[in-house]
Amino acid sequence: MPGLEENIDAHQHFWRLDRGDYHWLTLDMALLCRDFGPAELAPFLSRHGIGGTVLVQAAATVAETEYMLAVAAETAFVKGVVGWIDFESTTGPAEIDRLAAHPKLKGFRPMIQDIPDPEWMLRAAVGPAVAHIQHLGLSFDALVKPWHLEPLGRFLRLYPELNLVIDHGAKPDIAAGQFEDWAHAMRKIARNDHVYCKISGLVTEAAPDWQPGDLTRYLDLLLEAFGPARLMWGSDWPVVDLAGGYDRWRDAALDYLARLGHDERRAILGRTAAEFYRLHE
């Protein structure tokens, strides 16, 4: 698949409200309370020269994963899908096998940020599904917040060969200036050389009137800790519409990355995601 690694949006969503499984969409998110599909995303990709995307789950249902796979089968630019299964179900490993039969299914994401127990990932009932994901070489997207990073470190010791990526830089509270504790925890996590990180979703953690400079020390920390070969850019579209939109976040990221060499930029903007999610397979 020549050129695929050139530009990848490693984190985007689609949804259709009549499906009824996007329970996190509330009235204070009025901008997002409508359908979002490929036709609306395509102009952004074209404008920014992005050749492929990773479509990520946004509902805790297998039905939504099946919906995404159906969309991906009809949408050339969707190169991979990150789905959802019930990790605590005894049928989890079999469900993983069934969904992974689809060539665009690349991994799974439990919605850890919405689970009240910060140590949920360490439950014995979760183990068989995670172990099966590790065995198959699929990916695990960790949708976590800063207080999950300590248990995530223990989780990683249980699954030393798990291909794991931290979504949205673990969502530091940029608006409140929360930094040191998050930075310490992220440096520690990054010592696991099989752990990757997405620079996506950061602007929605910043103040509504965010400026690119507000993101700099967070991006600096992630670049220092993970390096370009383990960082990947994602839009988090359409959630990014709550914080200025696709174009503004893409432009801010490109301005920041301009300080890097060509190969380092190419890694963060596409090659890392293509390799991590095996988008060439």
Can you give a write-up of this model?
The structure is a single chain. By secondary structure, this protein is of the alpha/beta class. The protein has one domain: Metal-dependent hydrolases (TIM Barrel, Alpha-Beta Barrel), CATH 3.20.20.140. Helix content is 37%, strand content 13%. It has an 8-stranded parallel sheet. The longest helix has 15 residues.
Report the CATH C-level class: Alpha Beta
CATH architecture: Alpha-Beta Barrel
What is the C-alpha radius of gyration, as a whole number of Å? 17 Å
End-to-end C-alpha gap = 9 Å
**SSE ordering:** EHEHEHEHEHEHEHEHH
Strand fraction equals 5-15%
How can the largest sheet be summarized? 8 strands, parallel
Query: From the helix content, strand content and strand pairing, which structural class follows?
Result: alpha/beta
Mean pLDDT: 96
**What's the shape?**
globular
CATH homologous superfamily label = Metal-dependent hydrolases
Tally of individual helices: 9
Q: Can you count the beta strands? A: 8
Integer tally of domains? 1
Q: What are the low-pLDDT stretches, counting only 5+ consecutive residues below 50? A: none
SSE blueprint and pairings:
Layout: E1 8-12, H1 38-47, E2 52-56, H2 62-74, E3 78-83, H3 92-100, E4 105-108, H4 127-136, E5 139-142, H5 149-158, E6 163-166, H6 180-190, E7 195-199, H7 212-226, E8 231-233, H8 246-257, H9 262-276
Parallel strand pairs: 1-2, 2-3, 3-4, 4-5, 5-6, 6-7, 7-8
Question: Characteristics of this structure?
Answer:
single chain; 281 residues; alpha/beta; TIM Barrel; eight-stranded parallel β-sheet; 9 helices; 8 strands; 13% strand
